[in-house]
Amino acid sequence: MHVFTYTDARNNLKSVLDKVIDDADVAFITRKEGGHAVVMGQDHYDSLMETLYLLSSPNNTTRLNESIAQLR
């Protein structure tokens, strides 16, 4: 996890984007007045959205947990 102030993120946007994409990580951008933000690469975002979708159904959650247990 990387943390940047708004000013640092603005002044180094390419570097911030490179870090989150290359590291498959997120960057937190803080602001003095609050309302902080999170930046992540699209692949990371897509993966999170897919996971949330799969876990949104109790049946899917049960099946996924059973599959994970079988792998162990």
Automatic annotation (TrEMBL):
Matching InterPro entries: Antitoxin_Phd/YefM, phD/YefM_antitoxin, YefM-like_sf
Taxonomy, superkingdom: Bacteria
Role of this protein: Antitoxin component of a type II toxin-antitoxin (TA) system.
Record-stated family: Belongs to the phD/YefM antitoxin family.
Record-given protein name: Antitoxin
Organism: Acinetobacter baumannii 99063
